[in-house]
Design brief:
120 residues; mainly alpha; 3 helices; single chain
Length: 120
């Protein structure tokens, strides 16, 4: 009888050890998956921002030359484009915590908790 209980506890110990090892491996793979998803989202967002920035840059140059030709002074045209960007920048400076930072934080938390919501 004592031998049976000893074997039982050894078997139980082995099962618990295997379970904990498998659980740690699962946690590690979930971490890798979340890291990969966030990296992919950041990379794709970076590419979109880069391409949009280039497009905006060339459109700004074109608008500066167009306004410069209209006002017969390229300096005035480019100054007007700069003023336009300054007017668009001010709201972002004043409301950056509400708009930009909260949006980024919520997006990252959404990515991190997506797997947990799928399991429920």
């Amino acid at each position: 009888m004592e031998r049976d209980s000893k074997e039982f506890f050894q078997e139980l110990k082995l099962m618990v050890t295997d379970y904990l090892s498998a659980r740690m491996q699962l946690i590690k793979y979930e971490f890798y998956e979340k890291t990969a998803k966030i990296s992919a989202a950041l990379f794709s967002s970076l590419v979109i921002v880069l391409l949009a920035s280039l497009m905006l840059f060339f459109l700004s140059i074109a608008l500066g030359f167009y306004l410069g030709a209209l006002f017969e002074s390229y300096g005035t045209g480019f100054l007007m484009v700069t003023g336009l960007y300054l007017l668009m920048l001010l709201p972002f400076i004043f409301f950056r915590k509400n708009w930009i930072e909260k949006t980024i934080i919520n997006r990252l938390l959404e990515e991190l908790t997506e797997k947990e919501e799928e399991e429920k």
